[in-house]
Amino acid sequence: MNVQRRWINRLLLSSPLAMGGALCARAQDDAALAYYREAKINWKQADGQSLTIGLNKHPFTESLLPLIPEFRRLTGINVEYLILPEAEYFTKLVADLSQQRGEFSVIMTGPMRNWQYVPPDWILPLDGFLNNAKLTDPNWFKLDDFYPALIKANRWDGKTGGGVGEGPLYSIPVLAETYILAYRKDLFDQYNIKVPTTLEEMAEAAALVKKNAGIPGIVARGTPSVASMGTGFLSGLKSYTDGQWSEFDGKMNANFHDPRSVKYTELWINMVRDSGPPNWANMQWYDAMEAFTAGQAGMIADADFFAANYEDPKKSKVAGKVGYALIPPGPGGKTYSGLWTWALGISKATKNKDAAWLFVQWATAQRTLLNATLGYRNYNPSRQSITNDPRVQEIMGSWGNGSYLKVLAKNLETARVAWTPQPERTRLGDIWARALHEVYFKRLSAADALKKASVEMDKVLKEAGIK
Description:
The protein is an alpha+beta fold. Helices cover 47% and strands 10% of the residues. The protein has two domains: 47-177 and 340-388, D-Maltodextrin-Binding Protein, domain 2, CATH 3.40.190; 179-338 and 417-463, Periplasmic binding protein-like II (D-Maltodextrin-Binding Protein, domain 2).
């Protein structure tokens, strides 16, 4: 019976109908890959090699995975991947990079993370790949299509305290992330609540939402880790001080306890304690995003691209009900958004460096990122041509009745990396976040908690040889 079944299968596969189907599939595949074959490089030059990609659990990751089979067909390179939640991902990544095991060939990284990886020489500068005619067709890849601020953010000269935008390029951006205020326009209109233009007005709006609508007036990240510090909180602090405050003074002494930082921290913590959710201290970014998406908050100051979730009627209870605004400015009237960009880099320890670059080049190519955006909602695009694509404009232009794109455009003109470059940023953020918990739970005043954090951070920098 098995012999007969195999014979029948061979007969069916060799039939004109089956052969026609195979030819049709091959033609469709060739059409899908035609764009990539316009590049004047040999995509098959690493045929048979293998890569493992390290990925953080993130919307970009979800947009990339369905496209990877295309890369395998194009190059003959086998790709495996490991996806982990953010904290676990970075712990495993640092272990792999520091021991130079080369488990991950390509890594999901970004500017501030690179500050930890560059000084010990764990990741490769990418300029050599970009300038290698065998590996890259610059006229096809179009590096200048990326937003200049994103490329600048991923360059660093390796000097503690500065040098962002200078020196080698260490990763290629896959999305743009700035920080904005999203608010329930329907509730603000219903209860005549003013869209805040100062932090004090933001706290007042949060209180009014809670009082009138019976839901938290604001949600925010709150876990005692660096992940809670760099989005809405830090952009708000920079705005509150007209961009003049920094984590360090001119001599790299920790500056958390600056009076302006103390005052801002008091206002922020009082707002989330009085008008936020009772579980603020345990909120990850996705907890805050999902709470707002579920209609359980009046405002959220966080990543702009979360709007893709808010505006998705399949996932959201607030689709079509959200307004978007800049982070409230400080006394000088200037708003300040930090900048982050998830990006792809290459481990120095990988044995298949050229194959790794081919993956990075393919994954960040214009067509790949366009497909990731249109098909799988990778927002915000890191390439200007994708943002300007009429199909993308139609989708994003509907968010907040056009307010989203206006806010995004303004931020991309002025946003910059808000942190001071130094390799202990993660430990700094953890220390800082724990200080906010001290204030939130009323164990210490803001002044005392932030002074304690400054002393602890100075000790870390001294032990690391930075001071």
